[in-house]
Amino acid sequence: SAGPIGDGIVEAGLRREDAMRRFCVVTSQGALGARDGARGDPNHARGLSADRAPWVCAAVSDGTPLAEAVRQFAPTCLLGLSTVPGVFSEDVVRAAADACARPIVMPMTNPTSKSECTPEQAYTCARAAASLASRRAAAFASSLRRRSSCATSEPRASASSRAAACCAFAA
Where is average pLDDT lowest: 1-5, 32-36, 61-65, 108-112? Predict the structure, then answer.
């Protein structure tokens, strides 16, 4: 199975293989990527379980750090499931914003003290161009409407044509 997210994309009409290619999962060992030796293949070296093997992304080398994986894979969405506070660093969010005019940043970890980033950090790092999805995003959006100087951004051309692409971080 591709998990609930992959299954949802398949139900929307993509073949399973095409759906899986739209993801790059990054673990504490780096990207679940191609076993090419470029970064020592740490995920492959410790053995890929049956639930991780389908998520190997051929577009990046196994063990590629998150920020570099974002630059190489050019996702339109960052989906945080790590419980690692701050893993969506300025470098990671800016790389996503460079690859996509309006990246979606989803720091999903609860409690928010373990969130990958705050809505404020994502918005600032993406130069006011990110779309946010988290429990705290609605409160942040409300505060932005009260601050007119932060409510607009310059439009930028999109560098990505893979609308469903996602880069996830799993511990």
Answer: 1-5
Cis check: omega of the bond before 155, within 30 degrees of 0 = no
Asked whether the predicted pLDDT for residue 72 surpasses 80, the reply is yes
Beta bridge partners, 44, equal: none
Which pTM does this prediction carry?
Answer: 0.76
Give the Cα separation of 145 and 48 in Å (integer). 46
CA dihedral 168→116→65→125, nearest 10 degrees, is 100
- Band (pLDDT 50/70/90 cuts) for residue 134 is low
Pairing of strands 57-61, 77-80: unpaired
Question: Could you tell me where the beta strands, DSSP code E, fall in the chain?
Answer: 23-27, 30-31, 33-34, 57-61, 77-80, 104-107, 131-132, 166-169
Are 171 and 113 in contact, with CB atoms under 8 Å apart?
Answer: no
Phi, psi of 106 (to 5 degrees): -125, 85
Q: 119, 123, 148, 156: which is closest to 134 by C-alpha?
A: 119
DSSP three-state, residue 110: coil
